[in-house]
Amino acid sequence: MSWRCRTCNRQFKTWRARDQHVDALDHDPLDFECHICYDIFPDDEERRDHEVEDHHYCVDCDRHFQNLNNIKMHLNSRTHRGQNIACPFCKNGFTTATGLAHHLEGGGCSRAPFLNRDEVYKVVRQKDPSGLISKKLIGWDGSPTYKATAMAWNGSAYECYFCHREFRQINSLDQHLSSPAHQQALYHCPNRHGCGKEFKTLASIMNHLESESCSFTRFETVQRTVNDIMSGNRLLKFG
Predict the structure, then answer these.
(1) Contact (CB, 8 A) for 203 and 98
(2) Which residues, in sequence order, are CB contacts of 13 under 8 Å at separation 6+?
(3) pTM (two decimals)
(4) Which of 103, 149, 168, 219 is the most buried (most CB within 10 A)?
(5) Are 136 and 128 in contact (CB under 8 A)?
(6) Domain locations in the chain as residue ranges
(7) Long-range contacts of 86-89 (CB under 8 A, 24+ apart)
(8) CA atoms of 239 and 224, how far apart (whole Å)
């Protein structure tokens, strides 16, 4: 690591040498001090990373958080991120890639009601021929559909014949059967050796990556990637 004088851009191998240079020539001192412990950093980005990771402190909101996960959730919330991810069809804004994926897979877009989990998977497969996040399902031609009937009544409730979960109303069981709960996993974490988890929806894998739980990629990279999936002709990548 090297240290730079902000005034003349000369670099030094040690902080002490740089400090002596600044004092001798009366150059502008380094003033990126931690707001908590007053450690000094070469730039504002390193100072902020330190405050978040070591002190769980958000300088913009002047708030301390209980742990690293809590402050990361705060920094990735609408408060700091806004709604900068636009649906390519209806142009509604979303804070996270997860939110956009859920909007499209769940048929929530008024301008693209034809989209669902299967149709989104087909789009991802076209952008991801190497199978970075999408599973190569040989012979796959769509997810099976299930419908609840009166035979699901077990005497006290309507029972799912896969997981045996009980529902008071048959339409509630139908909603459960129409969800991805008992469908095949379509995606896997790109961190094959360090994680290897599988996911049934694009929203669930986006949420996994945005959480940075397996440290494969950064939150911002996931947001750029979901935009690449739904627009343009670029192939899928994280980087």
Answers:
(1) yes
(2) 2, 3
(3) 0.72
(4) 103
(5) no
(6) 3-78, 83-144+183-230
(7) 87/111, 88/230, 88/231
(8) 9
| Contact call for residues 232 and 123 (beta carbons, < 8 A) | no
* Owner of token pair 């301390």: 64
Residues of the chain with pLDDT under 50: none
Six-digit token string for 91: 């142009």
The length of the chain, given as a count of residues? 239
Residue with tokens 């029972």, as numbered in its chain: 159
Looking up tokens 């669902």 gives 116
Spatial separation of the C-alpha atoms in residues 49 and 71, rounded to whole Å: 11
The label of the residue with tokens 């950093």 reads: 41
DSSP structure string for the chain: --EE-TTT--EESSHHHHHHHHHHHTPPPP-EE-TTT--EESSHHHHHHHHHHHH-EETTTTEE-SSHHHHHHHHTSHHHH-S-EE-TTT--EESSHHHHHHHHHTT--TT-TT--HHHHHHHHHHH-TT-SSB---TT----------GGGB-SSSEE-TTT--EESSHHHHHHHHHSGGGSPP-EE-S-TTTT--EESSHHHHHHHHHTTTT-SS-HHHHHHHHHHHHSSSPPP---
What residues does 134 pair with on adjacent strands? 187
Nearest to 200 by CA among 210, 211, 189: 189
CA separation for the pair 221, 228 (Å, rounded) = 11
